[in-house]
Amino acid sequence: MVEGDAKNPNTEQMEVNQPKHDGTTMRKALLVINCIILSIGNCGSPIIMRLYFIHGGNRIWFSSWLETAGCPIILLPIACAYMHRSSTADPTSGNKLFYMERRLFLAAIVLGIITGLDNNFYCYGLSRLPVSTSSLIIASQLAFTAGFAFLLVKQKFTAYSINAVFLLTIGAGVLALHSSSDRPANESNKEYILGFVMTLAAAALYGFILPLVELTYKKAQQEISYALVMEIQLVMCLVATAFCTVGMLVNNDFKVIGREAREFELGETKYYIVAIFSAIIWQCFFLGAIGVVFCASSLLSGVVISVLLPVTEILAVLFFNEKFQAEKGVSLALSLWGFLSYFYGDIKRIKTKKPTPETEMASSLPPNSLESSV
């Protein structure tokens, strides 16, 4: 026997475990990337949308439409993934641009309709409330996400994740202590209360959407890759955009956009710049949110959204001169504490988990192959 033909058992074990290591590393990298994308969208979208409202914009359905109208930009990474597969895959195996099957397509349509309705609720609330007040109400979304995640996907809670939800919720509650002082002077009490109710409805509805997306991944009868996640996002946003387009037609928004642009306080050019950047930044939010659900869970996506609340508060102070009371500093500290608590518990869970060699070999290939996503 030639010496080079002999196989070292340890080498064999390393080869078996290699796909698991590569898949785990890529999943962690995707998680970090999606958290960054979500951070940009979550902090930037309410700021730029509020900029539209305070300088003369008042079309609710149009601003709702902008939240998802930027979805065609997702075609670029989908096309890049397709070209990469074309250059590396076996020519005889075939290569499709879109992998979504009918069952998943129908689920994405339902999610898109709910998203369009949620967009309208949120935009109406933001048109009536300051960013700081709207953001603290949206923070209640974490409690809704946790509850629906428990009911829909049987989310398991640890002492650390419960502590994180509690701290982040309390952090939002602290902000509510002086929210009444932020009410616009020229707004009626009825309008303010209605804005509050619509924002709370938006928080509850999106708290339902995130676990529903996770449930869709679990129930899909096909392999879920990150490329497929982008396809789901594209269909959801196209349907939500169509939903809001109907609202714009009924409300005659298309007829008055030109006039509103000319009367915009910052000028007509900046009106369209605000609209374009709003559409782009909102895509960061939606893609980042469902990307975090894919890489981790709907609960983590809700945690990331909530922990960014104080950052949005600070940006509102810088750009709109909103007040930064001591309560907002306390909220920032509580939010960071909750965020660290969640990740400390997750790291501790991973370290204490000791799989047997048989379990390790059986799970060497992750259920959601990431290699097909590029």
UniProtKB/TrEMBL annotation:
- Family named by the database record: Belongs to the purine permeases (TC 2.A.7.14) family.
Protein name as annotated: Probable purine permease
Q: Where is this region: Disordered?
A: 355-374
Upper lineage is: Eukaryota, Viridiplantae, Streptophyta, Embryophyta, Tracheophyta
Q: Which organism is it from?
A: Gossypium stocksii
Can you say where in the cell this protein is located? Membrane
Locations of Polar residues compositional bias? 361-374
* Keyword Ribosomal protein included in the entry's annotation: no
Q: Which topology term describes how it sits in the membrane?
A: Multi-pass membrane protein
